[in-house]
Amino acid sequence: MSEAAAHILSGAAPRVPAGRVVVALSGGPDSAVVAWVACHTDPPREVSAIFVDHGWPASGEMRTAAKSVAEALDIELREVWVERTDSETGARVARLDVLAEAARGAPVLTGHHRDDLAETMVVNLLRGTGATGLSGIPERREPFVRPLLGFTRAEVRAAAEELALPFADDPANVDPRHLRSRVRTEVMPSLDALAPDVAARLARTAALVATDDAVLEEIAASFPLEREPAAVRIPVGALVTQPRAVTARIVRRALRLLHPPYPGTSADVARVLGAVAGPPSELTGGLRAEREGASVVVSDPAAAPAPPAPTTLRAGATVVFGPCVLRLQQREASSADVRFGRRLALSVDAGPDLRVRPAVSGERIDIRGGSKLLRDAMAEAGVPRRLRPSWPVIEGRGRIAAVAGARVAEWARPPAATRTVLELITERTS
Predict the structure, then answer these.
(1) Does the global pTM surpass 0.70?
(2) How many CB atoms lie within 10 A of CB 416?
């Protein structure tokens, strides 16, 4: 084994997780070396690789190189494709998404090194960033692991050459249309002339900033977030009592939970914080932020579950429907019986079997002296807009008898002299 390869193996191998790992194998020297490290750790790991095809002009050449590296290391290589984009950010987001999905829960090893970290800091600084951006590239952020961050580009390339790994150089890395390429080929050499070994200096800065950032992240993590199928609830109390440095991190945690591992833009953070006292806001990627009671909810309408299929609700039974748990019971009538709210009293004549279904656009419920749109009845009861398509509507004898947790139709109200009623109890599950 060459001296360069031994040096990298000794420093990088302890950073490779145990068990099954997947290498993001681009065909370049960096990913080839991290794949070699994964295959030579002790104890041995179960190693496979994924090549992401961006549809770029050099993709065919890089695919061939990735296949050659995989064959040389005797590991399985899978190919995945993403929609072509010339945007650096768009390509990176698409690549991380498809890698995380294709890895099926295994850690994903990438070939990022110290020069990549330094370049990332400069790119983030040019775009405008805070402490998290100035922390550069983390060694671990699930599911991604970067064992080579302690080594320079030159060290990694020397190892690849000495090991005779059949890598190729991606011309996109020096394409002047990309900001990162210009930082790599123009800015970093100029900075290095002013401060030799500038990548090491920036790496030290990144480590110091990351330490401070970790403290703020820990504080932000102490505030619980409630995850729903297509939404995350942030307690308003946390957003109005903490300094901006903490609230911004709370919001970014919520955005990562909804669309891991992306923390949103600074404009997204501002819009979510603005929803505490302001109107709903649209966020990047079709997300939405709005105030719901004691929470600000960030939701993804495109990922919302489809409305449930209609079902039957009988006295003595409990049914889970959409965001609600419904319980129907027959009991003695009471002067406290109400037609609005979580516990609704219906006439026994509305049953015995009730049908639960989602609302249809434009439907109305009978009220004294007329009717009311179901959407308005839900709004008056505080049902969030995002939950209304799956909110339970109760039918009896072919007519709308109630909106769960909201109100009873006038025709389905118990007569004044009745002795028994059907009580509909609604509890929220989300």
Answers:
(1) yes
(2) 6
